[in-house]
Amino acid sequence: MTITGERGVGASRSYKVVGTSPIRHDGVDKVTGRARYGADINMAGLLHGKILRSPHAHARIRSIDTSKAEALPGVRAVATAKDFPIVQMQELDFGGAQRNSRMMADNDLAYRKVLYQGHAVAAVAATSPHIAEEALELIKVDYEILPTVLTWKDAMKENAPLLHESLTKRFTMDRSSQGKDTGVRSNVASQIQFKLGDIEQGFREADVTVEREFTTQTVHQGYIEPFACTASWGPDGRVTIWTSTQGIFGIRETVAGIMDIAESAVKVVPMEVGGAFGGKGIGYMEPVAAVLSKKSGHPVKMVMSRKEVFLGTGPTSAAFMRCKIGADKSGKITAAKLHLVYEAGAYPGSPVGGGASTGLSAYKIDNVLIDGYDVVCNKQKTQAYRAPGHPQAAFAVEQVLDELAEKLGMDPMDLRLKNVARQGDRAPTGVPHARVGFKEVMEAMKAHPHYSAPLEGINRGRGIAVGYRLNGGGSGSSATINVNADGTVNVITGSMDLSGTRVSIAMQVAEVLGIAAEDVLPQVVDTDSVGWTGGSGGSRITFDTGRAAISGAEDVLRKMAQRAALLWDVQAEDVQFKDGVFFCAKNPKDKLSFKELAGKLMATGGPVTCSAMDKQGGVGAQLAGNIVDVKVDPETGKVDILRYTAFLDVGKAVHPAYVEGQIQGGTLQGIGWALNEEYFFTPAGAMANSSFLDYRMPTTLDLPMIEAVIIEVANPRHPFGVRGVGEGPIVPPLAAVANAVYRATGARMYGLPMSPGAILEAVEEQQPKKR
Amino acid sequence: MQDFEYVAPTTLAEAIRLMNGNGLRTKALAGGTDVLVQMRGRRFAIDRLVDVKNIPELNELSCTESDGLTVGAAVPCCNIYEDVIIQRLYPGLVDAASLIGGIQIQSRATIGGNLCNSAPSGDTIPALMVQDATCEIAGPNGRRTVPVVLFCTGPGQNVLQRGEILVALRLAAPKANYGSHFLRFIPRNEMDIAVVNVGASVLLDHAKRRIVSAKIALGSVAPTPVLARKAMDFLAGKEATEATIEEAAEAAKSAARPIDDMRGTIKHRVHLVGVLTKRALQGAILRARGEE
Amino acid sequence: MGERVHVRTNINGDAADFLCEPRQSLLEALRDILGLTGTKEGCNDGNCGACTVIMDGRILDSCCVLAVEAEGKTITTIEGIAPLDGLHPIQQAFLEEAALQCGICTPGFIVAAKALLDREPDADEARIRHWLAGNLCRCTGYDKIVRAVLKAGEMMKQGPAIGQRAGVLGGKAGGTEAGKSVEDVYMA
């Protein structure tokens, strides 16, 4: 059969479903309170688990006495790291970075050492959460307190205490490889390096050079739903886990690894996810709940408090950046150097590779040297946060470019446009760019009315910045499509829906099948019920799982064409499909809509069900851009965001309303990171502001409406041109707001957060005579 | 949270008896927005929680031009700031009551509770201090009256003795040419604890030009909210000019003895005392002149 | 001390009695005792609004109220917002305006917005932002939430007919089957 319509790309291509904004399929449940999230579970005999956490940032565990806790009425089980089989089987090692089960076991329950304040050391299951909490106070842990290595700076000092005796520095020039082991014992877990051309020669060619140093602090994803999971260990040795996570198969692998059981003995059932942003890419409590359930013979539910979320999960890295960029008089960048140091927290694995491989990639620069260092210290083990590592690097690069433009007397957008990278240009990673829309985004920014609108009033400033995002993908997605007799189809995936991917996948299937989005019923199911699927991260679901679903839908059309051929007594090749209708090329009177044919499947050979898998990988790159106007109170240092316009090349917006939502949400997080959010540590390494009261995320009153501008430069790797939208929007705001504050105050902000006090200090330094 | 006994007496006498409670650790519960969070955070443990919201005297809210304002200790903030007479007569108090937490918190949180919590940053306390509010306290030894200015004795500490309950706050009827204002500085626009807060009140002469007397109270800059006495003394008898206000604002800084913490540095807080004192005085003067 | 207390309330129009410990919050009673899990816990200290309910006409954070304090009170939770035959205009507007992403803060926002629009159907953007400042959302940037509440205000002024538009997906909603597939789960 032939499917009419171009299965390739093009902004010119017209769609029936893609590009509209239907109501999401899970919407009714979510506006009525029926949707079930991680903590919304109850069952007969359910116990409640709670975790005891270290008050110290760095200490050796001499002993743990749980006897009093075990004796408390209502307590049914107590667990420590010794209950994890993997801990008995192997020593802590640092291979495999993100999915190292031994390392995760050590983070889930500390064995020999605690490495940050809040590190879990023991857990209790009891008949009520209150009793479990009381029992925690009865556990005696004997700590030998060690010197705290709180920051990257402390960790890189000569003779700094080592967090891990066995950790040696690795060196790599490829983000996807761990590189070679240098054998040097250090808190520096790894160095990543990218080189292009001759950096010295490049700077010699420059007429103007700007070199600056920048810092950012530890920040949290700030999802509103705390981590929550329930485990039920059956007498047959099989365990079922209900959890709020970005990836059920990752949880399955981790639990199986830590508990030393077969992956197939673990069934992970996804609950709705109340925000994740990378932070729920791994779990923390599932293996603990599994141990407690195994020991108690009851299902065990564990829900973190907000304080535990701050102390016991992975925020993103505090970072240090040194950036040097040189350009000739015409504004052409001749050389750029970027030195990045990212805190990994307690175990190796900061997103420094994300910063190193993206910070300069929006530009065509012939001479580049980028060095990135992954450094362990006594803070929470960092975890992905929306475009991991990108915003910190962009904060540095986009401010240096702003200064450079000023020195050159150039419009900041013109400087960027002059150096914009295009298809075929080599990124600093050495990889040539595919078809990208960097230039289109920059041109759209410059042409937008906001760019040229007059900014009236004192103490106001307008800033711009762009942000390059390298979307991930390729871990693999499965999808199954079942045709129902009423003409609807079920689409079954294992892709957790973090923010509207059920609808974006369903729409792609509907587009292929020529039916309405409402007639495609997307289902997210457990690990026993769908093929292996990687986690929802890297802005990959609408792209990867979408591609698997498209492929399954095309298979459905082929199978249904065979049924039509049977009915019409023709060859399958004679059946054509267009606009939702099957028809016979030989006898145009023979035609059946998708719905009509769906009703005849049982009579023509049985149900049609198609499964597909996609593992081609590499969503590709995109550019985000911001224009922001701020007002700074010169007496208090407080910043008000007056106007915000956020641009993103999305390839193709499948559901434009939710694409806008992604842009607006990423912008909010970027603004929070820029202005007020930070982990505030005491010198001993305790987080002083572990509540939503003092970890100041933006409220309704802190933002104006955010204009989202969607740019569509189709991605050749996706049938509809999708590029992914989740992460790009958080890359530019840090620098954009800083550039705006500079215009409003004359003070450059080299550190985050740009709190009122910090802004006043910077203004004072800049203009000592004025105040 | 540890287990405890919950009681909800309907008379003041019963409440005092329950609060006094035979060696039990007791605590009064009004809006609960501080007490419950602190108990959950294990800041203290109690044996008995005495809910005072069912006692008539603690629910009194009366405001007249002649008798002034009586606010029962269990009256939530929303009832105060929604009262049109209070809005007109005590705008400085309304400023404070309407910016504690969000709307949800304001449905529960009480001025009495804010005072009894005795946090250095308590938002209503400076507003009460500059309006000469007094506390009606009842206890096993009868009733007594304590000026709000003397109520707090340290962070989380106050003059209440065992078994005593704060019944109500009383504010005298405002005089003519009198104005009050309250300001808080926070990094966000809502929901934060004050980095610094400042209450100010002024009484102007008949011509509304000269300051007869002024009061300035500062929060979050000392173990308790404090009066900026030097600035107050300075203002008495002065013309209400920008220069005078600037000088008073500078003088107010000397009353600030803040700490460095996650909410602000010493330097920024002292600086903000000057900025907020200036702005609060300007606001109070405008109100005294009937220009706002 | 600490004996369980019998509490009598009216929740979403029905009499609801329960036994609770004094230390249990109203949020715990709703979720763990009564199975009304639509009310969410985000912070448990009154700083995110995810647990917002209406009690005797006022919105409050149910984490900051003891269950025993609910004696004799009338309470509305997210489960009580929609009419029997459809959705409340605010719910409908949230769907149409794409005002939710992960959805965890959505019940709190809808309950808070209902209390506002019942009092002030003409609330403008500034008023809506002020009223909702106690509700945190981390996904949307608030833009579409504010627009949805503005739209709902318009819809409510046009009368109940719009509010009761049933079947937003023609009765074929895919739903959050992840939760529904849970075995042995008590339904609210």
Percentage beta strand of chain A: 25-35%
Number of helices of chain A: 21
Briefly note the structural class of the backbone of chain B.
Answer: alpha+beta
Give the beta-strand count of chain B.
Answer: 14
Rg from Cα of chain B? 19 Å
- Strand tally of chain A, please? 29
Number of helical elements of chain B? 11
Provide key terms for this protein:
heterotrimer, A: 771 residues, alpha+beta, Aldehyde Oxidoreductase, domain 4, Aldehyde Oxidoreductase, domain 3, 7-stranded mixed β-sheet, globular, disordered N terminus, C: 188 residues, Ubiquitin-like (UB roll), DNA polymerase, domain 1, 5-stranded mixed β-sheet, 7 helices, 5 strands, disordered C terminus
Characterization of this structure:
The complex is a heterotrimer of chains A (771), B (292) and C (188). In chain A, 27% of the residues lie in helices and 25% in strands. Chain A starts with a strand and ends in a 5-residue tail after the last helix. Chain A is globular, with a radius of gyration of 27 Å. Chain A is built from 21 helices and 29 strands. By secondary structure, chain A is α+β, with helices and mostly antiparallel strands. In chain A, the strands form six sheets. Chain A has a seven-stranded mixed β-sheet, sandwiched between helices. In chain A, strands 9-8-10-18-17-16-11 form a seven-stranded mixed β-sheet. Chain B is 31% helix and 25% strand. Chain B has helices at residues 12-20, 35-40, 77-81, 84-89, 91-97, 103-106, 111-117, 124-129, 229-235, 242-252, 266-288; strands spanning 5-7, 26-29, 48-51, 61-64, 68-72, 134-139, 142-147, 152-154, 157-158, 165-171, 178-185, 196-204, 211-219, 226-227. A five-stranded antiparallel β-sheet of chain B has the order 4-5-10-6-7. Chain B has a four-stranded antiparallel β-sheet with strand order 11-12-13-14. Chain B is globular, with a radius of gyration of 19 Å. The model of chain B has no long low-confidence stretch (mean pLDDT 97). Chain C has two domains: 5-77, Ubiquitin-like (UB roll); 89-163, [2Fe-2S]-binding domain (DNA polymerase, domain 1), CATH 1.10.150.120. Chain C is built from seven helices and five strands; from the N terminus they run ββαβββαααααα. In chain C, strands 2-1-5-3-4 form a five-stranded mixed β-sheet, with helices on both faces. In chain C, a hairpin with a 2-residue loop joins strand 1 (5-11) and strand 2. The chains are: A alpha+beta (771), B alpha+beta (292), C alpha+beta (188). Chains in contact: A-B, A-C, B-C. Chains A and C meet through helix 1, strand 22 and helix 19 of A and helix 2, helix 3, helix 4, helix 5 and helix 7 of C.
